[in-house]
Amino acid sequence: MGQAVGEAAVRAGLELIPYSFCSSKDSKTKSQIDVGGISVELVGPGQDRDNLIKTLQSQYPNMITVDYTVPDVIHDMVDMYIKHGMPFVMGTTGGDRNRISKEVIESGVYAVIAPNMGKQIVAFQATMETMASNFPGAFSGYTLKVMESHQSSKKDTSGTAKAVVQSFQGLGLNFDVSQIQLIRQPPEQVNVMKVPESALLGHAFHTYQLLSPDGTVTFEFQHNVVGRSTYAEGTVDACLFLAQQVQERAPKTLYNMVDVLRAGAMR
Ligand SMILES: NC(=O)C1=CN([C@@H]2O[C@H](COP(=O)(O)OP(=O)(O)OC[C@H]3O[C@@H](n4cnc5c(N)ncnc54)[C@H](OP(=O)(O)O)[C@@H]3O)[C@@H](O)[C@H]2O)C=CC1
Ligand SMILES: O=C(O)C1=N[C@H](C(=O)O)C[C@H](O)C1
């Protein structure tokens, strides 16, 4: 995602700051990568990130940091952004989401944090949230089946599926996120979820099926994404939105992508 977002930022005419944090594995193998024609230096966790951040903050006072790392390091990354007062857009899933929200709000650091940045999926999430608040319990008694297929390198449960399940709970469904079915094996991805073979290394196919108590009514919601571009474009929208909130010293500091969409800030 980091590469895709960098390229989308360059396409949108933004200035890409030529540094990216990486894991220690990456910092040992290479120190420069090309992102949309810009040579970006990789900085591993062992390097002096604190001093680099201070230097970049004075060089680029309007800097927005984008985080697509891994659930294992999400809290360390948030701690670092808070410590340095760095406005950030975070697409990374996992971690303790309530803890992150609480810490970010208390710090007053500006942030957009969301498990999905794709405009139409964000609109779907907002619709489901509205449905749950307008018609609480409308689906009580129904049973829910949720399947999500992602590239086999993804270890955690889809953050998007977890967020949508929250709305289904509001609609009266008795369903826990631990019941979400994770599809990570290529044969099942191709044969059951109908993922094109060319997308096995990067896809997000979600299916939510609802069945009435007497079995006479079914609903099915599905969103299937091949590749990364929809999230990368949405991330750039989030950066532009957040930069504006920082500039205006908006009283609210923590946002999600539904806020960005409602503000009319998604292209
Ligand atoms: N909100 C949204 O719309 C979307 C969210 N996501 C989420 O974003 C996250 C990343 O996804 P994806 O890009 O596919 O995953 P990848 O595994 O491709 O990328 C994660 C990157 O984080 C790097 N990394 C690991 N540890 C650190 C660290 N301590 N400091 C800096 N960088 C580190 C990894 O380096 P290395 O490979 O060297 O270990 C890797 O380059 C996941 O949680 C995913 O679910 C994904 C797509 C869209
Ligand atoms: O890892 C991914 O690829 C994605 N992760 C996010 C999630 O966990 O919901 C968003 C999208 O599904 C792609």
From TrEMBL:
This is 4-hydroxy-tetrahydrodipicolinate reductase. Signal peptide: none annotated. Residues 122-261 form the Dihydrodipicolinate reductase C-terminal domain. It comes from Chlamydomonas eustigma. InterPro entries: DapB_C (IPR022663), DapB_N (IPR000846), DHDPR_bac (IPR023940), Dihydrodipicolinate_Rdtase_pln (IPR011859), NAD(P)-bd_dom_sf (IPR036291). It holds the Pfam family DapB_C. Residues 1-117 form the Dihydrodipicolinate reductase N-terminal domain. Gene3D superfamilies: Dihydrodipicolinate Reductase, domain 2, NAD(P)-binding Rossmann-like Domain. Its EC number is 1.17.1.8. The keyword Membrane does not apply. It catalyses: (S)-2,3,4,5-tetrahydrodipicolinate + NAD(+) + H2O = (2S,4S)-4-hydroxy-2,3,4,5-tetrahydrodipicolinate + NADH + H(+); (S)-2,3,4,5-tetrahydrodipicolinate + NADP(+) + H2O = (2S,4S)-4-hydroxy-2,3,4,5-tetrahydrodipicolinate + NADPH + H(+). SUPFAM superfamilies: NAD(P)-binding Rossmann-fold domains (SSF51735). GO terms for biological process: diaminopimelate biosynthetic process; lysine biosynthetic process via diaminopimelate.
